[in-house]
Amino acid sequence: MNEIITFVENIGNPVEQALYAALFTWGLTALGAAFVFFFKSINRAVFDGMLGFTGGVMVAASFWSLLSPAIEMSEGEGFIKVIPAVLGFLGGALMLYGLDKVMPHLHINFKKEEAEGVKTDWHRSTLLVLAITLHNIPEGLAIGVLFGGAAVGFDGATLGGAIALAIGIGIQNFPEGMAVSMPLRRQGLSRLKSFNYGQLSAIVEPFAAVLGAWAVMTFQPILPYALAFAAGAMIFVVVEEVIPETQRDKFTDIAVLGFIGGFIVMMTLDVGLG
Prior knowledge:
- This protein has 274 residues and is mainly alpha-helical.
- The protein has helices at residues 2-11, 14-33, 44-73, 79-102, 124-152, 159-186, 191-200, 204-218, 223-246, 252-273.
- The longest helix is centred in the N-terminal third of the chain and has 30 residues, at 44-73.
- It is globular and about 55 Å long.
């Protein structure tokens, strides 16, 4: 693992580091989406377990990689020290809440009439892709903010932690690619179109990562707020989107076990590399 850290250090520019890390997570989404070339559907129990795993990774990353460093690097003592984390966390959740109300989208496993956001006649496939795209915005931001913070040298923000976050998000992006492409294939889209929709759902991550890293490098005092902002957005996605999607069938226990497994994997990565 030290070889990976050394390789990333040699890139030098933190914005480039964030870009390459987000391209890695996008690549794993594309790899998951590519399974549509070999399978038309996926076992529902396995699917719910993978969604649970995704939620576990996101919750663990929100605390270990984002909230904890945000609190650690904030000035003051007691309640004063936690104010940046509180404000940033609330801001991130409210941003996703606003996007959720405005952007038309459809959660996985939900019926077309259960679509959220502004009412539209857009096709189900478009709404499904937009839902995952909305999901991926805070993940890209989190990667960029942490790489930017590590470059600046803030306490609690390390290059190893940023790499751990990128690896964790990449792992949970793999089933996300399948979660988009497989349902689209079942709806009658070709394998190529299903794959393209699946991988495009994560194309927003590199852009969000570059924006996050640039913002932190340019406005260094915002780092604690930015880390907590990304955490709030990710927690909103887990509670509003991921968890409800795992509760639509009879495999809720498998989803819970997947969540626990994802949490353990992300916690181990962050503590081990951070």
